[in-house]
Amino acid sequence: MISRRGALIAGGTGAAVVAGGAGAAYMVATGDKPEPPAPASVNAQGKVLWRNWSGVQHAYPAARLAPKDEGELATALKVAQAPIRPVGSGHSFTALAPTDGTLVSLDSMSGIVGWEGDEAIVRAGTRLGALGPLLAEKGRALANLPDINKQSLGGALGTATHGTGIKIPAMHGDVTGLRLVTPSGKIIDADASNNPEIFQAARVSMGALGVISQVRMRTSANRRLRRRVWLEPFEEAMAKADGRWAQHRNFEFYAVPFTGLAVNITHDETDDPAEARGPDQDVEFLQALRGLRNLLGFATPLRKAAAKALLSSAKPESSVDEGWKLLSTERPVRFNEMEFHLPVENQLKALEEVMRTIETERPDVFFPIEVRRIAADDAWLSPFYAAPRGSVAVHAYYRDDFTFLYELIEPIFRRYEGRPHWGKLHTLRGRQLEAIYPRWKDFLEVRQDLDPEARMLNPYLKGLFGLM
C-alpha cells in the first residue's frame, strides 16, 4: 500500500510539471491553499492565545486555572471570572471552550483513584490515550474508544464522544456515577439513585452545569482484538454495511469521494497471538487523495479512474493486540468536521445523498467520510437518547473552505432527522434542538438550578440554549 500511494504522489507531481510547470507541481505537493493566518499569540491586553486543534476556534482568557484537586477547583470556581469554561485537549470544533473569562484545565487532575468492583473511579482530566494502559494494569479496559484518543475523559463525555458498534454505547453510556463541582463551589455526587436528574443531565452537558471532577465507569475484560482494514467498491460496502454491523464487534467504513471506493474497518475479539499493527498509513493515503484532487479535480471521471487504478488493488491489513492499542488512530493531518447522528433507517440514504452532493458540487473535497453505528442510552442530551443511531462525519482539510458543510451538508442531515455531535460543526440552536431532544427542557431546568447566573455559559452556549 505504501509503494502504490507513494507512486501516486510522485507520479502526480511529475505529471503536473509536464502539464503546468513548477506552479502546478507545487499545488500537487503542498496543496492549493496557503496556511491559514494565525491569531496573535498575545492580544493588546497582554492575554495569551488559546486555540483549538484545528485552528478554527481561539480566545484570550483573562485567567487560566489548573487545580490540583477537587477542593482547589471548588474554591477557585466560586471567585472565578465568568464565563468559566472547562477545556480538555481542544479537539472540539464548535466554540465550547473559548472565553474571555476563565479557562479551566483539569490536566493536573488525572488518573484512576479507586475501584468499586469492576468499575473504575477516574479523574476527569485523564487523557483517553493514558487511560488504556492504566486500566490494562488491572486487566480491564473501556468497552470502546473513539477514533481519536487525545481527548480528556471529561471533554469526551461532555460532547457525547463515541466509537462504533451496534451493541456498544457512547462513552457516557458506561458512566454509573459522577462528581460535579458547580460554579458556586458545591460538590455534588450523582448517579441513577442519588440526584438522578443531575446525573442524567450531567453525563452529556458540554460543561454547562459546572465542572465534572471524576466519574465512575463500567469496564470490561482487557481482550485482544483482531483489526482488519480493506478497500472495496463503495456500492459493495453500502450493500454489506448492515450485515457487517450485525456480524462484528466493531465495524465502520470510510466512503472516499471521487474514487468509487470505501475503506472498511472491523474489530473482533480473538485469542490469537499478537500481530503488530504497524505504522498508520493515513497520512500517505490523504496525501495521495490530495494529489489526485489537485491534479485531476477538474475532471471527475479521470480522477475516479486514477484512484481505482492506483488504490483498488491495495492489500488488506490485519493486526492483533489489546483493544486500547487498536481502536483509536493517530490523526496528525488537521481538519474541520461536521457529524450528525441519524435514525438507523436513514443513515445510508443520507450518506448516498451526501456523496452525490459532494461529487457534484465540491471537487475540492478529498477527505474520506466516516460512517459508524452507536447503541442507545438514556442521557438527556445524548444524540443516542432512546434509540441507536448511525453517524456520518464529513471532513474538510484545515486549509480549505468548510462553509459547504453548513450550506450543502447540514440540510441533508437535518432532512433525515439527524442530531448534531456536540463537538462538531453545526448551526442548530434553541427551539431547533428542543424539537429533536425530548428532554431538552428538563436539561435547561437543571442547568438553571445549578447555575442561575449563567456563569458557565459563554456566548456560544447562550445561543445554543436559546438564551440570547
Automatic annotation (TrEMBL):
Cellular-component GO terms for this entry: membrane
Domain FAD-binding PCMH-type per the UniProt entry, residue ranges: 57-222
Pfam families to which the protein is assigned, alphabetical: ALO, FAD_binding_4
Record-listed E.C. numbers: 1.1.3.-
GO terms, molecular function: D-arabinono-1,4-lactone oxidase activity; FAD binding
SUPFAM superfamilies, sorted: FAD-binding/transporter-associated domain-like (SSF56176)
Keyword Methyltransferase: no
Sorted UniProt keywords: FAD, Flavoprotein, Oxidoreductase
Highest taxon listed in the record's lineage: Bacteria
Top enzyme class: oxidoreductase
Name this polypeptide is given: FAD-linked oxidoreductase
Species in which this protein is naturally found: Caulobacter vibrioides (strain NA1000 / CB15N)
